[in-house]
Amino acid sequence: MAKLENSTKNMVLSLTAITLVVGALLGLVNAVTKEPIEQAKANKQSAAISAVVPGEGNEISKGEIVTSSNGEEAVVFSVTNNGQLIGKAIRAVSKNGFGGKITVMFGFDAEGNILGYSVLDCSNETPGLGAKMPDWFQKGQKGDVIGKNPGKNNMHVSKDGGEVDAITAATISSRAFLDALAQAYGVFSGSEVVTTSASQQAVAEEVAAPCEEACDGCPKAEKEESCHNEN
Amino acid sequence: MSKLGIIINGLIKENPTFVLLLGMCPTLGTTSSAINGMSMGLATMAVLICSNFVISCLKNLIPDKVHIPCYIVVIAGFVTVVQLLLKAYAPAVDEKLGLFIPLIVVNCIVLGRAESFAAKNSPVDSACDGIGIGLGFTCALTLIGLCRELLGAGTVFGASIYPEQFGALTFVLAPGAFITLGFLVAIFNKLTAKK
Amino acid sequence: MSPHVHSGNSTQKCMLQVLIALCPALLWSFYQFGSGAIILTLASVAFCLLFEFLITRFLLHTPSTLGDLSAVVTGVLLAFNVPSNLPVWVIAIGALVAIGVGKMVYGGLGANIFNPALVGRVFLLVAYPVQMTTWPSQAGYADVETGATPLSIIKRIVNGESTLAAPDFMDSLLGVTGGSLGEVSALALLLGGIYLLVRKTITWHIPVSVLLSAFVFGFLFYGCNMTLALDQLVCGGMMLGAIYMATDYVSSPMNSRGQLLYGCCIGFLTIVIRRYGAYPEGMSFAILIMNAFTPLINKYIKPQRFGVVKK
Question: What is the distance in angstroms between the Cα of B125 and the nearest Cα belonging to chain A?
Answer without folding.
Answer: 18
